[in-house]
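ingest -> validate -> predict -> emit
validate: passed (alphabet ok, no gaps, 293 aa)
predict: started
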Amino acid sequence: MSHSIFTLAQHFPVLRLRFTLQLQAQTTLPDFKGSMFHGWFGQAIKQHDEKLFYILCAEHDVGQPKPYAIKLTDEHKQQWQKGELLSFDLVLFAEAVHLAQRVIDALNEGARLGVGEYTTQGRSPVKLLSVASVLPNGILPGVVTSMLRDWISPEVTDAPCELALHLKSPLRLKYKGNISASFLPDLYELNRQTCRRLTQLTKFWLADDPTLLKEIHMSQPRLGEYQLEHHCYFENWQRFSLKQRTKQPFGGLKGLISFYGDIAPAKPWLQIGQVLSIGGKTTFGLGHYELIG
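emit:
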Protein backbone atom coordinates (compact mmCIF):
# COMPACT_ATOMS: atom_id res chain seq x y z
CA MET A 1 0.00 0.00 0.00
CA SER A 2 1.36 3.38 -1.00
CA HIS A 3 2.68 6.00 1.39
CA SER A 4 -0.10 8.41 0.37
CA ILE A 5 -2.81 5.93 1.38
CA PHE A 6 -1.20 5.35 4.77
CA THR A 7 -1.00 9.12 5.21
CA LEU A 8 -4.69 9.40 4.34
CA ALA A 9 -5.48 6.60 6.81
CA GLN A 10 -3.64 8.52 9.54
CA HIS A 11 -6.05 11.44 9.06
CA PHE A 12 -9.28 9.46 8.49
CA PRO A 13 -11.22 9.31 11.80
CA VAL A 14 -13.27 6.21 12.62
CA LEU A 15 -15.61 5.84 15.58
CA ARG A 16 -17.30 2.48 16.10
CA LEU A 17 -19.90 2.84 18.84
CA ARG A 18 -21.61 -0.17 20.42
CA PHE A 19 -25.10 0.55 21.71
CA THR A 20 -26.60 -1.94 24.15
CA LEU A 21 -30.35 -1.86 24.69
CA GLN A 22 -32.44 -3.70 27.26
CA LEU A 23 -35.90 -4.88 26.27
CA GLN A 24 -38.54 -3.76 28.71
CA ALA A 25 -41.17 -6.28 27.60
CA GLN A 26 -41.47 -9.64 25.87
CA THR A 27 -41.51 -9.10 22.11
CA THR A 28 -41.05 -10.49 18.61
CA LEU A 29 -38.31 -8.94 16.48
CA PRO A 30 -37.34 -9.57 12.84
CA ASP A 31 -34.66 -12.18 12.18
CA PHE A 32 -32.49 -9.71 10.26
CA LYS A 33 -32.43 -6.56 12.36
CA GLY A 34 -30.50 -4.18 10.11
CA SER A 35 -33.63 -2.59 8.68
CA MET A 36 -35.12 -2.27 12.17
CA PHE A 37 -32.05 -0.48 13.57
CA HIS A 38 -31.75 1.68 10.46
CA GLY A 39 -35.35 2.84 10.85
CA TRP A 40 -35.03 3.41 14.59
CA PHE A 41 -31.79 5.34 14.13
CA GLY A 42 -33.32 7.62 11.46
CA GLN A 43 -36.56 8.22 13.33
CA ALA A 44 -34.82 8.95 16.63
CA ILE A 45 -32.46 11.47 15.04
CA LYS A 46 -35.20 13.15 13.03
CA GLN A 47 -37.37 13.70 16.10
CA HIS A 48 -34.52 14.90 18.31
CA ASP A 49 -32.23 16.86 15.96
CA GLU A 50 -33.49 17.86 12.49
CA LYS A 51 -30.16 19.39 11.50
CA LEU A 52 -28.33 16.20 12.43
CA PHE A 53 -30.84 14.16 10.41
CA TYR A 54 -30.22 16.38 7.40
CA ILE A 55 -26.45 15.95 7.67
CA LEU A 56 -26.44 12.18 8.14
CA CYS A 57 -29.50 10.96 6.29
CA ALA A 58 -30.48 13.42 3.54
CA GLU A 59 -29.49 13.05 -0.11
CA HIS A 60 -26.89 15.77 -0.75
CA ASP A 61 -25.24 14.86 -4.06
CA VAL A 62 -25.16 12.11 -6.67
CA GLY A 63 -22.90 9.31 -5.50
CA GLN A 64 -22.50 10.70 -1.99
CA PRO A 65 -22.48 7.90 0.59
CA LYS A 66 -23.92 8.22 4.07
CA PRO A 67 -21.05 8.76 6.55
CA TYR A 68 -21.98 5.81 8.72
CA ALA A 69 -22.55 2.07 8.65
CA ILE A 70 -24.37 -0.34 10.92
CA LYS A 71 -22.74 -3.60 11.95
CA LEU A 72 -24.75 -6.42 13.52
CA THR A 73 -24.12 -9.61 15.42
CA ASP A 74 -25.20 -13.02 14.12
CA GLU A 75 -28.24 -12.94 16.43
CA HIS A 76 -31.21 -13.95 14.26
CA LYS A 77 -33.64 -15.10 16.91
CA GLN A 78 -37.13 -13.62 16.84
CA GLN A 79 -38.63 -14.35 20.26
CA TRP A 80 -37.20 -12.13 23.00
CA GLN A 81 -37.91 -11.97 26.72
CA LYS A 82 -38.19 -8.93 28.97
CA GLY A 83 -34.76 -7.93 30.31
CA GLU A 84 -32.71 -9.40 27.46
CA LEU A 85 -29.96 -7.28 25.94
CA LEU A 86 -29.79 -6.29 22.29
CA SER A 87 -26.68 -4.68 20.74
CA PHE A 88 -25.61 -3.13 17.47
CA ASP A 89 -22.61 -1.13 16.30
CA LEU A 90 -22.82 2.23 14.57
CA VAL A 91 -19.64 3.30 12.76
CA LEU A 92 -19.13 7.00 12.00
CA PHE A 93 -16.59 8.01 9.36
CA ALA A 94 -14.42 11.08 8.78
CA GLU A 95 -16.11 14.42 9.62
CA ALA A 96 -19.21 12.61 10.95
CA VAL A 97 -17.15 11.46 13.95
CA HIS A 98 -17.49 14.99 15.37
CA LEU A 99 -21.27 14.46 15.57
CA ALA A 100 -20.96 11.52 17.97
CA GLN A 101 -22.38 13.18 21.08
CA ARG A 102 -25.39 14.50 19.16
CA VAL A 103 -26.02 10.99 17.83
CA ILE A 104 -25.81 9.50 21.33
CA ASP A 105 -28.17 12.14 22.72
CA ALA A 106 -30.66 11.45 19.94
CA LEU A 107 -30.60 7.68 20.44
CA ASN A 108 -30.90 8.06 24.19
CA GLU A 109 -34.06 10.09 23.65
CA GLY A 110 -35.13 7.73 20.88
CA ALA A 111 -35.29 4.77 23.23
CA ARG A 112 -38.84 5.84 24.10
CA LEU A 113 -39.84 5.10 20.48
CA GLY A 114 -39.30 1.39 21.05
CA VAL A 115 -38.15 -1.17 18.49
CA GLY A 116 -39.76 -3.76 16.26
CA GLU A 117 -43.09 -3.67 14.49
CA TYR A 118 -46.08 -1.72 15.70
CA THR A 119 -48.66 -3.65 17.73
CA THR A 120 -51.80 -2.56 19.53
CA GLN A 121 -49.50 -1.60 22.42
CA GLY A 122 -47.05 0.20 20.13
CA ARG A 123 -43.46 -0.90 19.61
CA SER A 124 -41.51 -2.85 22.19
CA PRO A 125 -40.08 -0.44 24.80
CA VAL A 126 -36.32 -0.41 25.31
CA LYS A 127 -33.78 1.27 27.56
CA LEU A 128 -30.34 2.39 26.39
CA LEU A 129 -27.97 0.81 28.91
CA SER A 130 -24.52 1.62 27.60
CA VAL A 131 -22.42 3.16 24.85
CA ALA A 132 -18.92 1.83 24.28
CA SER A 133 -16.23 2.23 21.62
CA VAL A 134 -14.93 -0.76 19.68
CA LEU A 135 -11.20 -0.39 18.97
CA PRO A 136 -8.67 -2.62 17.19
CA ASN A 137 -7.38 -3.92 20.53
CA GLY A 138 -10.59 -4.06 22.56
CA ILE A 139 -13.67 -2.22 23.80
CA LEU A 140 -13.63 0.86 26.02
CA PRO A 141 -16.53 2.69 27.69
CA GLY A 142 -17.66 6.00 26.23
CA VAL A 143 -16.49 7.73 23.06
CA VAL A 144 -12.96 6.87 21.92
CA THR A 145 -12.04 7.77 18.35
CA SER A 146 -9.48 5.86 16.30
CA MET A 147 -7.92 6.49 12.91
CA LEU A 148 -8.33 4.19 9.94
CA ARG A 149 -4.57 3.59 10.09
CA ASP A 150 -5.03 1.91 13.50
CA TRP A 151 -7.00 -0.88 11.84
CA ILE A 152 -4.39 -1.61 9.16
CA SER A 153 -1.28 -3.78 9.40
CA PRO A 154 0.97 -3.38 6.34
CA GLU A 155 2.03 -6.43 4.38
CA VAL A 156 5.36 -7.69 5.76
CA THR A 157 6.08 -10.79 3.68
CA ASP A 158 6.70 -11.79 0.11
CA ALA A 159 5.87 -15.40 0.90
CA PRO A 160 2.54 -16.91 -0.14
CA CYS A 161 -0.16 -16.27 2.42
CA GLU A 162 -3.76 -17.27 3.11
CA LEU A 163 -6.60 -14.83 3.68
CA ALA A 164 -10.32 -15.42 4.03
CA LEU A 165 -13.44 -13.29 4.31
CA HIS A 166 -16.26 -14.47 6.56
CA LEU A 167 -19.31 -12.62 5.24
CA LYS A 168 -21.22 -11.78 8.42
CA SER A 169 -24.11 -10.08 6.63
CA PRO A 170 -25.31 -10.18 3.01
CA LEU A 171 -22.82 -8.69 0.55
CA ARG A 172 -24.70 -6.93 -2.25
CA LEU A 173 -22.59 -6.55 -5.39
CA LYS A 174 -23.81 -5.56 -8.82
CA TYR A 175 -22.92 -7.53 -11.94
CA LYS A 176 -23.75 -5.88 -15.26
CA GLY A 177 -25.86 -3.32 -13.45
CA ASN A 178 -27.94 -5.67 -11.29
CA ILE A 179 -27.63 -7.47 -7.99
CA SER A 180 -26.70 -11.01 -8.91
CA ALA A 181 -27.21 -14.18 -6.88
CA SER A 182 -24.58 -16.02 -8.95
CA PHE A 183 -21.80 -13.42 -9.19
CA LEU A 184 -18.89 -14.57 -7.01
CA PRO A 185 -16.25 -11.86 -6.56
CA ASP A 186 -12.53 -12.44 -6.87
CA LEU A 187 -9.86 -10.58 -4.93
CA TYR A 188 -9.53 -7.87 -7.59
CA GLU A 189 -13.26 -7.11 -7.38
CA LEU A 190 -13.17 -6.95 -3.59
CA ASN A 191 -10.22 -4.54 -3.73
CA ARG A 192 -12.07 -2.47 -6.31
CA GLN A 193 -15.12 -2.27 -4.06
CA THR A 194 -12.97 -1.16 -1.13
CA CYS A 195 -11.21 1.44 -3.28
CA ARG A 196 -14.54 2.83 -4.47
CA ARG A 197 -15.89 3.00 -0.93
CA LEU A 198 -12.78 4.72 0.43
CA THR A 199 -12.74 7.18 -2.47
CA GLN A 200 -16.38 8.20 -2.01
CA LEU A 201 -16.12 8.64 1.76
CA THR A 202 -12.92 10.63 1.37
CA LYS A 203 -14.30 12.87 -1.37
CA PHE A 204 -17.55 13.79 0.33
CA TRP A 205 -16.68 13.60 4.03
CA LEU A 206 -12.97 14.34 4.40
CA ALA A 207 -11.12 16.03 1.51
CA ASP A 208 -12.33 16.61 -2.05
CA ASP A 209 -8.80 16.62 -3.45
CA PRO A 210 -8.60 15.28 -7.06
CA THR A 211 -4.92 14.41 -6.68
CA LEU A 212 -5.56 12.42 -3.52
CA LEU A 213 -8.56 10.66 -5.03
CA LYS A 214 -6.51 9.68 -8.07
CA GLU A 215 -3.77 8.33 -5.80
CA ILE A 216 -6.33 6.14 -3.99
CA HIS A 217 -7.37 4.65 -7.32
CA MET A 218 -3.78 4.16 -8.51
CA SER A 219 -2.75 2.49 -5.25
CA GLN A 220 -4.83 -0.64 -5.69
CA PRO A 221 -2.52 -3.62 -5.07
CA ARG A 222 -0.84 -5.66 -7.76
CA LEU A 223 -1.20 -9.35 -7.01
CA GLY A 224 0.57 -12.46 -8.12
CA GLU A 225 -0.99 -15.82 -8.78
CA TYR A 226 -3.43 -17.12 -6.20
CA GLN A 227 -6.02 -19.79 -5.62
CA LEU A 228 -9.63 -18.91 -4.83
CA GLU A 229 -12.35 -20.91 -3.12
CA HIS A 230 -15.95 -19.84 -2.57
CA HIS A 231 -18.20 -21.37 0.06
CA CYS A 232 -21.04 -18.92 -0.43
CA TYR A 233 -24.79 -18.88 -0.78
CA PHE A 234 -27.32 -16.17 -1.56
CA GLU A 235 -29.40 -15.12 1.43
CA ASN A 236 -32.56 -13.57 0.02
CA TRP A 237 -33.65 -11.12 2.72
CA GLN A 238 -36.58 -8.81 2.24
CA ARG A 239 -37.47 -5.61 4.07
CA PHE A 240 -40.70 -3.66 4.29
CA SER A 241 -40.29 -0.17 2.84
CA LEU A 242 -42.52 2.46 4.43
CA LYS A 243 -41.91 4.74 1.45
CA GLN A 244 -42.89 2.10 -1.13
CA ARG A 245 -45.44 0.38 1.14
CA THR A 246 -44.20 -3.01 0.01
CA LYS A 247 -41.50 -5.58 0.68
CA GLN A 248 -38.28 -5.11 -1.25
CA PRO A 249 -35.46 -7.59 -2.01
CA PHE A 250 -32.53 -7.17 0.28
CA GLY A 251 -30.38 -10.21 -0.35
CA GLY A 252 -26.70 -10.81 -0.89
CA LEU A 253 -23.88 -13.29 -0.55
CA LYS A 254 -23.03 -14.92 2.77
CA GLY A 255 -20.48 -17.56 3.64
CA LEU A 256 -16.70 -17.78 3.27
CA ILE A 257 -14.32 -16.69 0.51
CA SER A 258 -10.70 -17.85 0.84
CA PHE A 259 -7.54 -16.97 -1.07
CA TYR A 260 -4.04 -18.46 -1.08
CA GLY A 261 -0.99 -17.26 -2.95
CA ASP A 262 0.96 -14.10 -3.69
CA ILE A 263 -1.64 -11.80 -2.14
CA ALA A 264 0.03 -10.08 0.85
CA PRO A 265 -0.44 -6.57 -0.68
CA ALA A 266 -4.21 -7.12 -0.58
CA LYS A 267 -4.35 -7.52 3.19
CA PRO A 268 -4.40 -3.79 4.12
CA TRP A 269 -7.15 -3.19 1.58
CA LEU A 270 -9.23 -6.03 2.98
CA GLN A 271 -8.69 -4.57 6.46
CA ILE A 272 -9.99 -1.22 5.22
CA GLY A 273 -13.05 -2.92 3.71
CA GLN A 274 -13.63 -4.67 7.02
CA VAL A 275 -13.85 -1.27 8.75
CA LEU A 276 -15.87 0.59 6.11
CA SER A 277 -18.13 -2.28 4.95
CA ILE A 278 -18.54 -2.66 1.16
CA GLY A 279 -21.23 -3.18 -1.43
CA GLY A 280 -24.77 -1.89 -1.18
CA LYS A 281 -26.93 -1.00 1.85
CA THR A 282 -24.13 -0.66 4.39
CA THR A 283 -26.32 1.68 6.46
CA PHE A 284 -28.66 -1.28 6.97
CA GLY A 285 -25.87 -3.53 8.23
CA LEU A 286 -25.03 -5.21 4.93
CA GLY A 287 -21.54 -5.70 3.49
CA HIS A 288 -19.96 -6.49 6.87
CA TYR A 289 -17.26 -9.16 6.96
CA GLU A 290 -14.49 -10.40 9.21
CA LEU A 291 -11.01 -10.92 7.79
CA ILE A 292 -9.25 -14.14 8.71
CA GLY A 293 -5.49 -14.18 8.28
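The mean pLDDT is 92.
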